[in-house]
Design a protein that fits this description.
The protein is an alpha+beta fold. The protein has a domain at about 40-75 and about 90-195: Oxidoreductase, molybdopterin-binding domain (Sulfite Oxidase, Chain A, domain 2). The chain has helices at about 5-15, 60-65, 95-100, 125-130, 180-185; strands spanning about 25, 45-50, 60, 70-80, 85-95, 110-115, 120-125, 135-140, 140-145, 155, 170-175. Strands 1, 4, 5, 8, 9 and 10 form a six-stranded mixed sheet that branches. A five-stranded mixed sheet has the order 3-2-11-6-7. A hairpin with a 2-residue loop joins β8 and β9 (about 140-145). The termini are far apart.
Length: about 200
C-alpha cells in the first residue's frame, strides 16, 4: 500500500513525463461508474452486431468472437470525472480485426458504438482503427468483471473512458457523426483528455 507521499510522488512523475492529463489525479483503485443496471450475460445467446457502411454485416456469437485474433496491450485509462488509472493490462480482439472482417466501405467516417441498456457513444473510425483499440474481455489478466464492463467492453485508451463503452454489443459505421448517450446531454463529441474535452462548451 502506497503512502500519501509515495502516491503524490508517482502523480508528479506521471505529470512530468506527460502521461497525466490536465485536471486529472492518479488513482490506485478502479472506481465503478456506469449508467443503468449491470446486465446478465448468457454466452449461448449473446451476439455482437456490426452493420451500417460495411460490405459484410456481421453477427458474431461469443464463441466466434473468442476465435478471432487476440492482442494484449498496456495502456492508461482516464475518466472524465478526473481520475486516471495507469498501466492497465487489457486483452481482447483488436477493432482492426472486426473492421477487416466486416469490410469497411470508403464512405464510413464514424462509428456508433452500441452497448447494453440502449447505451451508445460515438467516435471517428480512424480513432478506432488505432493499434491499441480493443474489444477487451480480460484485465490484468483476469476475465473482465461485470461491474467493469464484462463480458466485453471497448477500450479506446487515448479518449476519455466513457468512450470505452461497457457491455459492448455492436458497431454501426456511418458517414456522419451522431451523438451518443452522454454526448446528447452535453459531453464532448470527441473527448480528448489531454485537451480536457469533457463538455461541448469546452
Amino acid at each position: 500500500m502506497l503512502s500519501p507521499s509515495d502516491r503524490e510522488r508517482q502523480e508528479q512523475e506521471r505529470r512530468q513525463d506527460g502521461r497525466l492529463p490536465p485536471g486529472q489525479s492518479l488513482t490506485l483503485k478502479w472506481p465503478v461508474l456506469h449508467e443503468g443496471p449491470i446486465p446478465k450475460f448468457d454466452p449461448a445467446t449473446w451476439t455482437l452486431d456490426v452493420g451500417g457502411l460495411v460490405s459484410q454485416p456481421l453477427r458474431l456469437s461469443w464463441d466466434e468472437l473468442q476465435a478471432m485474433p487476440r492482442k494484449r496491450i498496456t495502456a492508461d485509462f482516464h475518466c472524465v470525472t478526473t481520475w486516471s488509472k495507469f498501466d492497465n493490462e487489457w486483452e481482447g480482439v483488436p477493432f482492426t480485426a472486426i473492421a477487416e472482417r466486416a469490410g469497411v466501405l470508403p464512405e464510413a467516417k464514424y462509428v456508433i458504438i452500441r452497448a447494453e441498456n440502449g447505451y451508445t457513444t460515438n467516435a471517428p473510425i480512424e480513432d478506432l482503427l488505432r493499434s491499441d483499440v480493443l474489444l477487451a474481455d480480460r484485465h490484468a489478466p483476469e476475465p473482465l468483471t461485470p461491474e467493469h464492463g464484462g463480458p466485453l467492453r471497448l477500450v479506446v485508451p487515448h479518449l476519455y473512458a466513457w468512450k470505452s463503452a461497457k457491455w459492448l454489443r455492436g458497431f454501426e459505421l456511418t458517414a456522419e457523426d451522431r451523438p451518443g448517450y452522454w454526448e446528447q446531454v452535453g459531453y464532448h463529441m470527441y473527448g480528448d483528455p489531454f485537451r480536457e474535452q469533457r463538455y461541448r462548451r469546452q
